[in-house]
Amino acid sequence: MPNTTKHKDTLFDMFLNSCSSNAGHTAFIYCTSSAEFRVSYEKLFDDALILAKAFKEHKIHKGSKVMLLSDNRYAWIVTDFALLSHGAISVPRGSDTTTPELEFILQHAECEFLIIETEKLLKTHEKMLKGLKNLKSIFVIEGNNSSHGLENTYSYNDILNDRIISNEDRNSFITQRHDIEIDDIFTLIYTSGTTGVPKGVLLSHKNIMYNVCNLPELIDLKQNDRWLSILPSWHIFERASEYIALSKGCCIVYSAVKTFAADLEKYQPTMVATVPRLWESMYNKINQTLEKQNPRKARIFKFLVTISSRYNYWRRLFYNQLPVFSKRAFLQRGWSKFRAGIMLLLLAPLNLLAKKKLSLVQQKFGGKLRMAISGGGSLPTYLDEWIDAIGIRIVNAYGMTECAPAIAGRSVNCEVFGTLGPPTRNTELRIVGEKGEILAAGEAGEIQLRGDQVFSGYYKNDEENKAAFTTDGFFKTGDLGKLTLGGELVITGRSKEIIVLASGENIDPSRIEAAITKLPFVSDAVLVGQDKKGLGALIVPDFEQLHSFMGGKNEHNAAEINKFTDKQTLDQVKSEINRLLHPKHGFKPFEKLQNIHLLDKEFTIGEELTNTMKKKRHVIEVKYKEIISKLLK
Length: 633
Hints:
By secondary structure, the protein is of the alpha/beta class. About 40% of the residues lie in helices and about 20% in strands. An eight-stranded mixed beta sheet has the order 2-1-11-10-12-13-14-15, sandwiched between helices. A hairpin with a 6-residue loop joins β14 (about 395-400) and β15.
C-alpha cells in the first residue's frame, strides 16, 4: 500500500492514515459459523477499496443517501468506509427495525440506495420496498446470487467478482480524500425514539473528528489495546468507539450478547464499551450464580464487595475525590479527613483480603481489562460502586447522538467518583434554570452545551431545530444535571421523562427504577404515575428468584398473581420494594409505590427497548395503557 500524507482531518483521512501506519497489525477479529477470522489493516484497506470500486460502478457518489440496514459484522465497517470514500451519506439502522419505521426513514431521508444484511431480512421488508419509487438499487451483504423478487437487487458476491487491485485503483481511491470537506455530512442517524417519532441527526466529519481527536487521550488509548465490541455498530456510541480504536491502530473483536462472557475470557480485552443495562445483566448473573452454587460463598462475596466499596469511599473522602457542591468550613473538612483516616486504618486489613479475593472475579472479564466505558445512559450508583469495588476502572461517560456522542466522561484524568467528570475539551457546558438563568454549582437544571461535536440540526425538521437550540447557539439536551464546585457533571434526570404527580411533585423515574432492579427477583421495572395521585410500577419478574424469595411457596405465573389469586405475593413484593424506597435510603415519602403489576414477558429490543437497551417509555405506556389505568385509578 502506498504511503499517504495527511491532507485534512476528515474521517476518511483518518482511515487512510491508520491503514498506512498500521498495515501489518490486526484490525478486526470476528467469528462466523464457529470459524475465526483475523483481518489486518492492510486487508481492511483493500476490502474497502474493492467495495468502493463496485459502489462507483453502481452510481453511488458524493451526497448519495444510502440506508445501511445491518447488525455488527466486519462487512458493516467495510461498507461504512467504502461509502465514506465517495462522500456518500450513510443512514444506518439495525436489523430489528420494524417495516413501518424503515419505510418512514427511507422516505424521510430520501434514500437512493439500500444495503441490507441478509436475504431473509430483504424478504421481511420486500412488500414495502416494492412500493418505493426512489430506490435505485438494493445490495444484500450476505447472499449467493441476484435472484431476488426486486429489480436492481444485487448481492455483495455479485458485485465483488473483480477483486484485482491495480496501482491506478489504489491511487484513485486515496485521492478521493481531496473531494471530502471537514463540514460535509457523513451520516444521517435516526434516533431510536425513546420519547416519540425518530428524528434524523445530521453529523459532519467535524463532529465525529472532534471525538476521534480528543477521546483517545481521555482513556489513555494505546496501539496494543484490544477492544471487545458488543453494541450495535450503527449506534453512534459504538461507532465512535470503533473509529477511535482504529485511529490508534488497535484491534477490535466483534462479540455478541450470547458469547460476551466467553469472549471476555477468551480474547482478554483491555478495553470494552458497554451500556448500563449490560452491566446490570453482569451484576445479576454473577450474584445469582454464586447464590445457586453456594449461598455461603455468595454472602462472603457480598461482604467482600461491601468492604472494598467502603474502603474506596473513605479513601476518596480522605483524598478529596468525592463530589462537592458547596463550600465547607475548614474545621468540617478537617474532621472529615480525620474520620476518613481512622476508618481507612480500621478497614485496611479486611480490604487487603477483599482486593485479593475479588481479583479472581476480574478473571471473568479476561484478567487484562484495564478500563471499561459505560455510555448510552448514566450508570446507576449501585452499579458504579459495585464495578469499582471488584477492581475494574470504569469510565462513566455521558453523550448523545447529537454530539457524536461525547459530552463528558470520568476519564483517566478525573478521580472524582460519583460524577461523569468534567465536560470534554473545548466544550462549553452550562446548567440552566426554568427561566433561562445560568445556575451555580449544586443547583439542578437543564444541561446545555456548545462545541465542535454538536450537530448542525435535525434533517427536514425546522420545528425541532428551533426547540433544540438557544438563541446564542447552545444545544438543549433535555437532560437535567448539576455541576460540582470542581466542574464535574452529575446527571439528575431527563426533563422529558420526569413524572409529575397530581400533587405537583416532580419525580425522576430512572433513580427509583435503578433501586428496584437491585432486587434479585426484579429483572426490569418501569415507573408510572403521570398526573396520578401516586406511583405504580410495571415489574418484569425473574420467576425463579421470585419463587426463592417467597420461600418456595409460590408456583403461580404473572397472570395468576395479578388476578389476586395470590395477593400475598403481590403485597410481599411491593413491601420489599418499598423497603428500598425508604427515606433512610434517600427517597421521599411520595416516591413509594401504591401498586404494582407483574408482566409476563421481558422487554425486547426493537419493541420496548432501543438498540442500546434504553426503555421507550412512550411505547410502554401505550402498550400497557389499560393496565396502567387500572393500576392507578
